[in-house]
Request: fold
Amino acid sequence: MILDLLRKRFSVRRFRDQPVPDDVLHEILDAGRLSPSGGNEQPWLFGVVTDPALIAQIAEAARGQMWIAKAPLLIVLCVTIVTDERGGRDIQVHRYPEYADIITQMDKGLYSALNQEEHQTKIAGAHMALAALERGVGSCWVSRFEVRRVAELLHLPEGTIPAEILVLGYPEEVRKPAGKKSLDEVVFDNTFE
Ligand SMILES: Cc1cc2nc3c(=O)[nH]c(=O)nc-3n(C[C@H](O)[C@H](O)[C@H](O)COP(=O)(O)O)c2cc1C
Reply:
């Protein structure tokens, strides 16, 4: 049961010196591939990084989070920026009509960078983390990194941005999961008040 696994899940930052086998990696990637996305655009590329030297460089670009360097596998969730004339701005204009003028006039590069969240790589990453969990592979999200530097390290094409890094491997230790809010604290029925 997925819920049983989720109740035991914790972010893994210490890994055994053991590679993730190809068949498990394939399952993890396929779980990402099958994810939903707005308009079924699937605007993503999944960078599989296993070269220890490259992993170490990415760790440095992640504000020196050197625990990443000991992981056997990174999946870099990259977003391909919408290339139509309006760069997908209509979505945000609909969501935030009160900021329509600012959104419409914002510099294209800045807008693309800030809007990367809209492309939902988090769903693909969450599916991957679940598929990994089912096969005993732990993971930790990393979003604190220098986007341009990681893009350079991976030789990403123009218009593709690394949005998140999923750090994966077999956990070295079993930890108590982090405390979570109770359902009472986070659920409301129909209206908040
Ligand atoms: C979007 C996102 C970004 C994160 N970025 C980092 C990060 O850069 N470095 C890190 O060590 N952990 C990162 N984390 C992991 C969180 O710190 C962790 O999920 C949180 O403390 C809850 O712990 P748990 O995952 O064990 O439940 C990130 C998590 C999410 C969801």
Summary: The chain has a mean pLDDT of 92. Strands lie at 44-49, 73-80, 138-142, 160-169.
